[in-house]
């Protein structure tokens, strides 16, 4: 729960990879015996090693509430209003000069020969062996 609160508060993107040369500061959160310690460090990267020095502030937080609200109430509080959600882009849909909606459908043509091979004809409609021999000649 605390991790979610910190991520929401600082609202930064989660990065899979970091460039160490570009890092200048680091915030460390540690939980010990119900207390949350926050420490800020300055980072200096050299060609052979990385050095960190505490620059402050140092904060000790003690949670005052040990019971949280119901899950459905939390979800309702975190719900984003529909007005703030960016509308989805409609692909392959446009309007002409008269205001009519035009849509494009990209479909691949079917091979009717393959389709014809898959259908099993009734015996009355099938070619007989004699007719097949005559058509081959």
TrEMBL record:
GO biological processes: maturation of LSU-rRNA from tricistronic rRNA transcript (SSU-rRNA, 5.8S rRNA, LSU-rRNA); ribosomal large subunit assembly
Single GO MF descriptor: rRNA binding
Alphabetical list of InterPro entries matching this protein: Rpf2
Keyword Lipid metabolism found: no
Record keywords: Nucleus
Record-level GO cellular component terms: nucleolus
Annotated compartments: Nucleus, Nucleolus
UniProt name for this protein: Brix domain-containing protein 1 putative
Organism: Entamoeba histolytica
